[in-house]
Design brief:
Blueprint (H helix, E strand, L loop, with lengths): L11 E4 L2 E4 L8 H4 L16 E6 L34 E8 L12 H9 L19 H9 L8 E4 L8 E3 L2 E2 H4 L4 E3 L2 E2 L6 H9 L6 H12 L8 H10 L2 H25 L18 H17 L5 E5 L18 H5 L5 H26 L2 E2 L2 E2 L4 E6 L15 E4 L10 E9 H11 L18
Parallel strand pairs: 3-10, 3-13, 4-15, 5-10
Antiparallel strand pairs: 1-2, 4-14, 6-7, 8-9, 11-12, 13-14
């Protein structure tokens, strides 16, 4: 019987135009996993840390969001109840603020500023033209410093189609409202809302001339992406121990499951002329959100990227939620004028979003990595750039921090702060990613409380 092999962390399955990253395997010993220059972005076990930012629009019903007690003995309020089984994996952080999302002399436009400022901490220039200016976002700061350690420096997802121009909110460009990630002060990174295109970005190789041929052949022959990497997978499987063989089989099965779900959304869709890939955005909103979350789990599991953003919906979104009994538009309801009936419907929308987030965290927790789980190695910020949508408040924002950060975070608590810049939290996360900077936007220092 052969001895199980030793693998470097950057081992891939390859085929015609296909590059599949692998999950963490026992054959990837700490010595081989810890690559030169990675020390700051991995835990003491040699496992990489991951960082993601999930945005929800229009604030929250803060009375049903904020726990009454501080510290470890807090009870989950109604909106956060779907996180009950994950209580020891999250921190509720109260008192974080985005001063630069306030008007500060610029008048109306709080929804555009809420999105633009959320990851940058900078005041957006009020313009509906091409002369955009805000700041570099925290994810892109990390991507510039440590993104070279993975095949994709960062991943940007959304459930809204990207918009880069036009007047969306009181004289602010749509680019501010439909992008979370900014590579430079005038250059947003458009998120992908089409699961098929996101899937191909993760598991195809856009720099390989064979990638387009591979996609065309898979569609023509109705083949799975895995069929083009089977030879590589068989050869690797033969070299692995029993535990790693099981993990590899589970991983390949999960890829095929997601691929089938992507394909199911494409049934009956007629491709538009001159486009190689048809529009595959699911009509079912919950299905869409969960499919994008699943892609994010795979991206982290395979170490394809360690940095991601997910704009569930742009701020100011007026989507209705009839499937949970809310037929009015979200934005319209957020201007509740103190009416309890409207606030109750806002709370139902908030709870729906939290239910999807809890589902995502459970998926991360289900992936074993080293002696723990993938969630243990993650730092996931969930929140909104508004607190109360009626008053357009940007103080005491609804913010969660999920995951263990490779053993550096202290989850299972409600942390109460006071008018603390949100960017202070980001400095603390960048420190843990090995991408430290002295300042980000309006930060005043790295947050020690987390």
């Amino acid at each position: 019987m052969s001895t199980p092999c030793q693998l470097p962390r950057r081992t891939f399955l390859k085929g015609l135009g296909i590059t599949l990253g692998l999950p963490w395997l026992e054959a990837m010993t700490p010595a081989t996993r810890l690559l030169a220059g990675e020390a700051g972005s991995v835990s003491s076990t040699g496992l990489p840390r991951r960082m993601a930012f999930v945005y929800v629009p229009n604030g929250a019903d803060m009375a049903n969001w904020t726990p009454a007690a501080e510290g470890n003995e807090f009870a989950l309020p109604p909106i956060l109840e779907p996180l009950h089984d994950l209580r020891n994996s999250i921190q509720v952080i109260s008192g974080l603020a985005h001063d630069k999302a306030k008007p500060n002399g610029d008048g109306a436009g709080d929804h555009a500023r809420a999105c633009a400022t959320f990851l940058t901490g900078c005041q957006a220039r009020k313009t509906a033209g091409a002369d955009l200016r805000v700041g570099v976002s925290v994810d892109q700061i990390a991507a510039a410093r440590v993104g070279g350690q993975t095949r994709l420096p960062s991943l940007e997802l959304s459930c809204d189609p990207a918009r880069q121009a036009g007047n969306c909110d009181s004289g602010y460009s749509c680019a501010y409202q439909f992008n979370l990630s900014w590579r430079s002060e005038s250059n947003p990174v458009p998120p992908e809302c089409n699961p098929r295109l996101a899937f191909e970005r993760l598991f195809g190789n856009p720099d390989d001339p064979a990638a387009k041929e591979s996609l065309a052949r898979r569609r023509l022959l109705r083949k799975s992406i895995l069929d083009f990497a089977l030879d590589d997978a068989r050869q690797l499987r033969a070299r692995l121990g029993a535990t790693d063989r099981r993990k590899l089989d589970e991983y390949l099965t999960s890829i095929r499951e997601i691929e089938r779900r992507v394909e199911s959304t494409e049934q009956g869709v007629i491709p538009r002329p001159n486009l190689a890939i048809p529009d595959a955005v699911p009509q079912d909103y919950e299905q869409h959100i969960r499919l994008m979350f699943d892609l994010l789990v795979l991206a982290f599991q395979t170490d394809t990227t360690r940095i991601a953003t997910f704009l569930i919906a742009h701020d100011g979104s007026n989507r209705s939620y009839p499937f949970i009994g809310v037929r009015e538009g979200h934005h319209d309801l957020s201007h509740h004028e103190g009416k309890e009936e409207k606030k109750a419907k806002i709370a139902k929308i908030n709870r729906f979003h939290i239910t999807q987030f809890a589902w995502f965290l459970e998926r991360l927790r289900s992936v074993r990595e080293g002696n723990g789980t993938l969630l243990d190695q993650c730092m996931i910020v969930y929140g909104s750039g508004l607190a109360d949508g009626n008053s357009h408040s940007h103080e005491d924002l609804p913010v969660l921090l999920a995951g263990g950060g490779g053993g550096t975070l202290r989850p299972g608590r409600h942390v109460r702060l006071s008018k603390t810049p949100m960017t202070n939290l980001y400095l603390a996360l960048l420190d843990r990613m090995g991408a430290s900077v002295e300042r980000l936007g309006d930060s005043t220092g790295s947050l020690k409380a987390v």
